[in-house]
Specification:
mainly alpha, four-stranded mixed sheet
Length: 417
């Protein structure tokens, strides 16, 4: 009959106010058990933390009343399936809360990388790269949360569309595009506000309550999105002057070999086709947004694309580029998760109500289809279309004979971030 104590002092009072466990008892993290042969009865001190209090179960389970002035008593379940509908959307909003916190942390670490780079005036130091590695961790989890939220629609689809109609009218004019957290996520990532779809000619922020609309507009004006901070990091890459010429030459030769090999074209025809293809690739790199070449926004996008191409091409050459390249991959995976969430939501809506007008007055599926066209990390999507296998490019030493002493990142004014 041994006595084991983890949190308690066995022979004296605990300096933190806990009494020593009674003889013949077992105490771990505040639990006490009495040993009686093979039976162990777990007792719980209710004055300590418990599961119900910690996650506020009782309060949480009282939040499914579905308040609406359209209901006879202002709230309450109008149909058995309404509980599933409310819980599904509540769970998505809870996941959005975690996602937002992780994205804010990722942005904070990215900004810290920029500040360290600016302070050192040479290149990102080891501390900054550690921060960048952590960015990947939070981005991965944010991506998984989008997948988790998308999976919620599979459960929701067990509700028959006709059953949804039994209580749908009570939701008017509530709508999913009134989700304040989702708008915050879009702004934080860097959705292009000039390309947002409108709802009946009005901005989607107009559907928010005034305080939320004001906060969204203020965040757009004053905050740096994750996309903008990433652009600053890419623009700080010290791109070798001859890299693009070498890349174009190697890529053209690759296209010649493809035309002469699998396509079996003549040498002359293969070179002509490769040259035509290279004109398309060069135009895409120099004018990725389709704007005039001297447009400052266009030039910024083009410079980011070239830097991302260099980093991706030599991601295996040195640790700094490996970490940065992985971060780029995590960002495009994150946007893919967002796109899949939008798509799953769209098809769930179409499956349940077809192309009816939304409860908030939007065109429903028509509006959601437009949002699927949004692209945030446009540089990274274009990059997928142009990079080639690294083996056809010269070794990294061609550009930086001694990477350990080379300035891989150039100094830039912090205001540009």
């Amino acid at each position: 009959k041994a006595t084991v104590s983890v949190l308690y002092w066995r022979t004296m009072s605990c300096p933190f106010g806990y009494d020593a466990p009674k003889p013949n008892t077992f105490s771990v993290l505040g639990f006490e058990t009495e040993r009686n042969g093979e039976m162990t009865n777990l007792k719980r001190d209710r004055s300590l933390c418990n599961y119900t209090d910690y996650i506020q179960t009782e309060a949480l389970l009282q939040l499914q009343e579905g308040e609406s002035i359209m209901k006879p008593e202002g709230k309450g379940m109008m149909h058995h399936e309404e509980l599933l509908f409310i819980v599904t959307h509540q769970s998505i909003e809870l996941w959005f809360k975690v996602l937002l916190k992780d994205l804010l942390k990722a942005k904070e670490l990215l900004v810290d990388c920029v500040e360290k780079e600016t302070r050192k005036k040479v290149e990102l130091g080891q501390g900054a790269w550690n921060d960048l590695a952590l960015v990947g961790h939070y981005l991965r989890r944010a991506t998984m949360i989008f997948h988790q939220a998308s999976g919620s629609f599979a459960v929701l689809q067990t509700m028959h569309p006709a059953d949804f109609l039994e209580f749908r009218d009570y939701l008017v004019p509530a709508s999913g595009f009134q989700s304040f957290q989702f708008r915050q996520i879009e702004i934080l990532l860097g959705v292009d506000e000039t390309k947002r779809a409108t709802c009946n000619g009005a901005h989607v922020f107009d559907a928010l309550i005034p305080e939320q609309k004001e906060e969204c507009e203020e965040n757009i004006k004053s905050s740096k999105s994750i996309k903008k901070v990433l652009e600053f990091i890419l623009l700080s890459v010290n791109l070798p002057e001859d890299f693009m010429d070498i890349f174009y030459a190697a890529t053209e030769e690759l296209h010649v070999l493809r035309q002469k090999g699998p396509a079996k074209h003549t040498d002359e025809h293969a070179k002509a086709m490769a040259k035509e293809k290279m004109e398309e690739i060069k135009a895409l790199i120099e004018c990725p947004l389709g704007l005039p070449k001297d447009d400052p926004v266009q030039k910024r996008e083009s410079d980011c694309l070239k830097s991302a191409l260099f980093v991706t091409s030599y991601r295996a050459a040195l640790p700094q580029f490996a970490v940065l390249s992985e971060t780029l991959d995590e960002m495009i995976a994150l946007e893919e998760g967002l796109l899949l969430f939008r798509s799953r939501h769209l098809h769930n809506v179409e499956r349940v109500i077809g192309r009816r007008v939304g409860t908030g007055g939007s065109s429903g599926v028509g509006y959601l289809e437009k949002t699927r066209e949004y692209r945030i990390f446009t540089t990274l999507w274009t990059l997928r279309q142009i990079f080639v296998r690294s083996s056809i490019l010269p070794p990294f030493a061609h550009f930086f004979p001694d990477p350990n002493s080379a300035n891989l990142f150039k100094q830039m004014p912090q205001a540009q971030a």
